[in-house]
Amino acid sequence: MPAWSSLLFQGELDQFGLSCARVEKVSLDERLNAARQVRYKIYKNALKGKIVSELDLDSVSVAVSPAEKYREFLATKGLRMTPERSIIVDEIFSSHDHFDADQLIQRLVRRNDGTRVSRSTIYRSIALLEEAGLIRKIARQEDRDLYEHDYGYPQHDHLICNRCGELTEFHNDHITELLKQISGELGFRMEGHRLEVSGLCRNCCRAPTSRPKKLNLL
Questions:
Q1: Closest Cα to residue 99, out of 71, 64, 125, 61?
Q2: What is the 3 state secondary structure string of the chain?
Q3: Full-model pTM
Q4: Has residue 211 been placed in a domain?
Q5: Residue 215 domain-assigned?
Q6: Residues 150, 191: contact at Cβ < 8 Å?
Q7: Do residue 85 and residue 132 come from a single domain?
Q8: Residues 141 and 113 in one domain
Q9: 36 in Cβ contact with 61 (< 8 Å)
Q10: Distances (CA, A) of 46 to 6, 39, 41, 112, 193
């Protein structure tokens, strides 16, 4: 479960007409519920076209936890939730980070609880988690497949910088409505969409601050 800050920043909330809320003196369930409601309001009231920064996992309410959903999926395939599989799904959903298989392996290696998971188990688990609809493949960078949460996370799209590899998440209702309109005109029943826009991020578009020195001509 993500660790929530004890104070929701006033500056971030003011632009949406929300009051600052202190949550450090309430129970964990109340704290998560309060944070979820505030973040959902921010998400729903964001200006159309505005880039929305990293959204927390709990921005969308889910009926069951990722671990329980994974357990149910494994049961349909005649598999069981082993301790290793439980560790992997818990580590992936401990924070919303884009990751590849090697990065996940390093995260598991750094755990100080003495648990060890084999590389082959991690690769197989990633494939199963993707099949279960818990994570999704979003991009391929430097011959590496990147993944992110799919279960319990708001629909969003990505801007991917070809130079530095930065991924920016955003949500725009106009895009969804346009795709629905196009689908309807073509007799296609739309169930979802994924959009990845490649280009250069703001930092990579900036002009260099200094010019390269001219070569001395002989």
A1: 125
A2: CCCCCCECCHHHHHCCCCCCCECCCCCHHHHHHHHHHHHHHHHHHCCCCCCCCCCCHHHCCCCCCHHHHHHHHHHHCCCCCCHHHHHHHHHHCCCCCCECHHHHHHHHHCCCCCCCCCHHHHHHHHHHHHHCCCEEEEEEECCEEEEEECCCCCCCEEEEECCCCCEEEECCHHHHHHHHHHHHHCCCCCCCCCCEEEECCHHHHCCCCCCCCCCCCC
A3: 0.60
A4: no
A5: no
A6: no
A7: yes
A8: yes
A9: yes
A10: 23, 10, 8, 39, 20
Residue 62's φ and ψ, nearest 5 degrees, are: -125, 150
Q: Are residues 34 and 18 in the same domain?
A: yes
| Residue pLDDT, tens place only, 23-74 | 344 455 554 455 444 444 433 333 233 333 444 434 566 778 999 999 999 9
Q: How many CA atoms lie within 13 A of 128 on its CB side?
A: 25
Q: Nearest Cα to 195, choosing from 171, 163, 217?
A: 171
Range of the domain at 79: 62-151
Cβ atoms of 196 and 146 within 8 Å: the answer is no
Answer left, alpha or beta for residue 159, where phi above 0 means left and psi between -120 and 50 means alpha: beta
User: In this structure, is residue 216 part of a structural domain?
Assistant: no
22 within a domain of the structure (yes/no): yes
Q: What is the pLDDT of residues 156-211, one digit of tens each?
A: 888 989 898 888 888 888 999 999 999 999 999 998 888 889 999 999 998 777 66
Check whether residue 67 and residue 120 sit in a common domain: yes
